[in-house]
Amino acid sequence: MSGFAEYDNFDGLGLGELVRNGDISAADLLDEAIDRTERVNGELNVVIDKLYEEARGAIASGLPKGPFCGVPFLLKDLHLLMEGAVTSNGSAMWRGAVADHDSTLVTRYRQAGVVVFGKTNSPELGLNPVTEPREYGPSRNPWNTDKTPGGSSGGAAAAVAAGILPVAHASDGGGSIRIPASCCGLVGLKPSRGRIPFGPDKAEGWAGQSTSHVVSRSVRDTAAMLDATAGAETGEPYSAPLQGSRFLDAALLEPGPLRIAFSREKWGQGDYQDEAIDGLEQTAALLEGLGHRVVEARPDFDGEAVGSAMFTIICVNTALAVRQRAKDVGCTIDELEMEDGTRLTMAMGDAITAADYAEAIQTNQTIGRLMGQFHLQHDVLLAPTLSSPPVAVGFISEAPPEEYGSRLFSYMGDNGIYNQTGQPSISLPLHWNAEGLPMGMMFSAAYGNDALLLQLAGQLEKAKPWWDNWAPLHAGIRF
Question: Which of 5, 147, 163, 250 is the most exposed place for a label (fewest CB within 10 A)?
Fold first, then answer.
């Protein structure tokens, strides 16, 4: 055990500064992160591939003096490739699939100085808002181990909330950064479409609905990691508007009075539970106290049609991914080992017509225009990140077929809309319920306006600090 008791006092940028100044070594930080992983992983099941020797080798080879120099880091086990490591996508279908190169985003993480020491748990193909893959078993929430840490970046969020590390890679195709951030009391930004590169193997995910970033404990880590990784590659199908200054600088600036709309109603099925409404109303009052103009308003569109469009795109892309995997390994689809839900999703994708898919794309583009018009009058739209506190492990994945849909939608918020429109959207840990479970509040802005969300997030972090809110199951030696 390295015994670096001050580890919990620093975010990722703080740890990186210690390493650059020679106050501590990257090897000592790695030892601390490994010790913490071993301390809590048996209870939480968050790190499913331990790359300890690879991490030690990276340190021995010399690290770039980037902003996160020597900071321990975990990659989500979904789509992102790291040379020499398996990316299983939470599935037996990709068992043993060792990458022969890094994804562009991994290259940028390395250039920022992080030390990758493992992969985090993810549901099969990222298809669930809980992290309970058959291949690796369920991840658990350090705030209450009977509860889910959310999904699909549940392993990443639980690892950060448990104090293994201050910031970790995550991805979001329908809420998968913001949902676990809400469940685990973290900052979770889904950047604008085209802000983060997908290359070199893919151009997009889920028809532009998916993107990557991080979950973190501090707003400035989220902002600085965006500075380190943002920017389109040559030939990308999307490119978010260029940022004139650093996102980190934006996070340190006061936003000035904003026009903020909020909604007590969902577009999707079900309603926000009372606990979510309590958090929403408290957040609206906090915003008013900070000088913002807060009104109840939201765009008017058919939530059912929007949800159907997202479902169509996910099903078709799941069918494509499975077919490509069968082709790569030289077997039939029937021979692939997959979860029943994945097989059903694939089958529904196969049944969708080309016209249905084109219509789904048009629906996404239509709501993107509606949202763009809405944000001419309102700078930010506020809603609860989720309809409820974190649900019990198994509540969704083990639901009887006739109850699966109602349980899923009683839990979900309206995260996916912002994947469909490409807007930036952030969950902030601004509310805890009477049982002490975190419930995030979600802020969304016009396409490309990531900096504005970071300004507002930085202001709220000062107004209602969450740094000292620690999960009961924590890996730190001071607990």
Answer: 5
Q: Are strands 115-120 and 72-76 parallel, antiparallel or unpaired?
A: parallel
Domain of residue 412 covers 5-297+367-463
Rounded to the nearest 10 degrees, how much is the dihedral formed by the CA atoms of 308, 313, 315, 316? Answer: 140
DSSP 232: P
CATH of the domain at 190: 3.90.1300.10
Query: What dihedral do alpha carbons 312, 317, 322, 327 form, nearest 10°?
Result: 130
What are the tokens at 267? 């577009």
Geometric angle at alpha carbon 279, from 406 and 209, rounded to 5°:
55
pLDDT tens per residue across span 339-358: 999 999 999 999 999 999 99
> Angle, nearest 10°, between helix axes 219-229 and 104-111?
120
What is the crossing angle of helices 303-329 and 354-374, to 10°? 130
| pLDDT band for position 2 (cuts 50, 70, 90) | low
Terminal Cα-to-Cα distance of the chain (whole angstroms): 15
Report the number of distinct structural domains present in the chain: 1
Amino acid type, 105:
L
Q: Is residue 131 part of a domain?
A: yes
Q: Is 427 helix (H, G, I), strand (E, B) or coil?
A: strand
- The answer to whether residue 337 is domain-embedded is no
Omega of the bond leading into 152 within 30 degrees of 0 (cis): yes
Q: Which residues contact 127 (CB under 8 A, 6 or more apart)?
A: 152, 314, 318, 341, 342, 345
Dist CA 433 CA 430 (whole Å): 10
* Nearest 10 degrees: Cα torsion 357, 363, 365, 369: 180
Instruction: State the catalytic residues.
Output: 76, 152, 176
Q: What mean pLDDT do residues 454-473 have?
A: 97
78 vs 88: CA distance, rounded Å = 7
pLDDT band at 477 (very low <50, low <70, confident <90, very high): low
Query: Residue 478: its pLDDT value, please?
Result: 46
Antiparallel, parallel or unpaired: β 438-445 and 380-384: antiparallel
Beta-ladder partners of 216: 167, 187
